[in-house]
């Protein structure tokens, strides 16, 4: 979309009784600083008057061309001689249009303050945009570190659970070996054959679980 030109701004302003920077910026869809530059050019070219104390420019009305007067029917002939002692009536001088008074020192100071305020406002807007961008980056980095911390915590909990399972399995394995292995049974006990049968039935399953744990 192209930026409205100065001529577009003049056409928009001539339709208003008076104008300020915000109205022109909103009407044209341009930045506040560009609208201020257009209004300053219009003031120099006479499209608008000097800025008022409330921040508004009065829009100068375009004057219609003067209507030519028709010659009077009773006007004397150019060839006619004047009476003795009479003098021609003096011609009325043409009225010159009144020019707007030049802006005083107070108005100039107000304009300078408005221009400085506009520059400060634009600089603050740029700084605010930079701060927003920096905040978005910080939020994204915080979320990334949060995801990493959660993943590391999940891995640590999984490793701790695996270690605890290994410790429990090893303890159970030692208990089974001590209680059922024939080599650990006292010689005077009569259930040696039963212990040996239980050991041969259970111990292969224990070793199978051990192999799966190490391979998995």
Rg calculated over all Cα atoms: 50 Å
Integer average pLDDT? 76
Strand order of the largest sheet: 1-2
Structural class: mainly alpha
User: What is the helix fraction of residues, given as a range?
Assistant: 55-70%
Would you mind describing this structure in some detail?
With 216 residues, this protein is an all-alpha fold. Among the domains are: 1-61, Arc Repressor Mutant, subunit A, CATH 1.10.10.10; 153-215. It is built from 5 helices and 2 strands. It has a two-stranded antiparallel sheet with strand order 1-2. The longest helix has 76 residues, at 105-180. It is rod-shaped, with a radius of gyration of 50 Å. The two termini are 63 Å apart. Mean pLDDT is 76; it is low at 64-86.
How would you sum up this structure in a few lines?
The protein is mostly helical. Helix content is 61%, strand content 2%. A two-stranded antiparallel sheet has the order 1-2.
Any key phrases for this structure?
single chain, 216 residues, mainly alpha, Arc Repressor Mutant, subunit A, 2% strand, rod-shaped
Write the layout of secondary structure elements.
Layout: H1 6-14, E1 18-19, H2 21-28, H3 32-45, E2 57-58, H4 105-180, H5 192-215
């Amino acid at each position: 979309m192209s930026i409205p030109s100065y001529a577009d701004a003049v056409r928009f302003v001539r339709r208003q009784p008076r104008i300020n920077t915000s109205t022109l910026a909103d009407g044209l869809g341009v930045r506040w600083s560009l609208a201020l530059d257009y209004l300053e050019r219009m003031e120099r070219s006479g499209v608008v008057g000097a800025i008022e104390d409330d921040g508004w420019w009065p829009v100068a009305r375009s004057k219609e061309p003067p209507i030519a007067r028709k010659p009077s029917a009773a006007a004397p002939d150019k060839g006619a001689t004047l009476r003795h002692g009479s003098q021609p009536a003096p011609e009325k001088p043409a009225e010159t249009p009144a020019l707007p008074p030049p802006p005083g020192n107070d108005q100039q100071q107000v304009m300078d303050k408005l221009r400085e305020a506009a520059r400060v406002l634009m600089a603050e807007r740029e700084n605010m945009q930079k701060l927003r961008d920096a905040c978005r980056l910080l939020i994204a980095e915080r979320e990334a570190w949060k995801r990493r911390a959660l993943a590391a915590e999940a891995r640590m909990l999984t490793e701790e659970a695996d270690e605890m399972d290994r410790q429990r399995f090893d303890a159970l394995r030692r208990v089974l070996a001590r209680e059922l292995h024939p080599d650990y049974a006292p010689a005077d006990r009569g259930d040696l054959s039963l212990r040996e049968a239980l050991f041969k039935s259970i111990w292969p399953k224990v070793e199978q679980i051990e192999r799966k744990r190490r391979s998995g």
